[in-house]
């Protein structure tokens, strides 16, 4: 698995990020980089600010201070139009999946495609939808409603809907939460397949150690609003730190 970042371009750089809600300081001083083509796992217990981190990254939450750069563009000072253009290069898979219940699988996947890739013909749209469904192993679900799908299938369809716009960066927020161990493993394997097939750089927010072990090229652990440790999976597994051992043992 790729771990060496020498000569790789940084696609995300977060420096000295701080974020609070009232008197509650969630991110105290977080810095990290994401390199092209790598899967970066952000590990930590619930409430350590993992999800807040990526919501700041995509501009869903304003930051208190620090800088966030994506593809050499400053997200914290970007205008609405510029922010929208940067976001079009980023795919999000949030915990709930957030499919539209009143739309078929096909309509769900077409929705972002019609909004962002307006130059595509109807036949090109149909081809793209079939392609991403095949890539997540659910080509036969194209005319189903979300209510007919299992939790794991809904997660796969949500991923297909994200991939249909050809994102350069993928953001996964607790992608295996609420899934049984077999389905969790399938989703983790799919994340690795997406990395290889689409050449994405990904940030994977999780507290699921099996997901981290399956997907990570590099790991950053957050604790108490700070970066506690950064390194490879082997370095984490060999660590004697009690907090890290509590995850890996």
TrEMBL record:
SMART domains: AAA. The keyword Membrane does not apply. GO terms for molecular function: ATP binding; ATP hydrolysis activity. It holds the Pfam family ABC_tran. Residues 12-249 form the ABC transporter domain. Keywords: ATP-binding, Nucleotide-binding, Transport. This is ABC transporter ATP-binding protein.
């Amino acid at each position: 698995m790729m771990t060496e970042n020498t000569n790789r371009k940084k696609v995300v750089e977060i420096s000295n990020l701080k974020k609070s809600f009232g008197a509650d300081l969630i991110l105290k001083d977080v810095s990290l980089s994401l390199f092209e083509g790598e899967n970066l796992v952000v590990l930590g217990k619930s409430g350590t600010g993992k999800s807040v981190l990526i919501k700041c990254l995509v501009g869903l939450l304003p930051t208190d201070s620090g800088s966030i750069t994506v593809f050499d563009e400053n997200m914290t000072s970007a205008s609405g139009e510029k922010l929208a253009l940067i976001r079009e290069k980023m795919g999000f898979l949030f915990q709930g999946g957030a499919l539209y219940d009143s739309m078929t699988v096909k309509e769900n996947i077409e929705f972002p495609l019609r909004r962002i890739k307006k130059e595509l013909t109807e036949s090109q749209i149909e081809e793209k939808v079939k392609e991403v469904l095949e890539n997540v192993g659910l080509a036969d679900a194209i005319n189903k409603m979300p209510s007919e799908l299992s939790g794991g299938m809904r997660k796969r369809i949500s991923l297909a809907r994200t991939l249909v716009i050809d994102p350069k960066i993928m953001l996964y927020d607790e992608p295996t939460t609420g899934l049984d161990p077999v389905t969790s493993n399938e989703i983790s394997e799919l994340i690795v397949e997406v990395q290889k097939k689409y050449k994405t750089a990904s940030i994977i927010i999780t507290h699921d150690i099996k997901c981290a072990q399956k997907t990570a090229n590099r790991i950053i652990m957050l604790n108490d609003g700070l970066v506690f440790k950064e390194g490879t999976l082997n370095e984490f597994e060999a660590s004697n730190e009690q907090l890290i051992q509590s995850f890996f043992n």
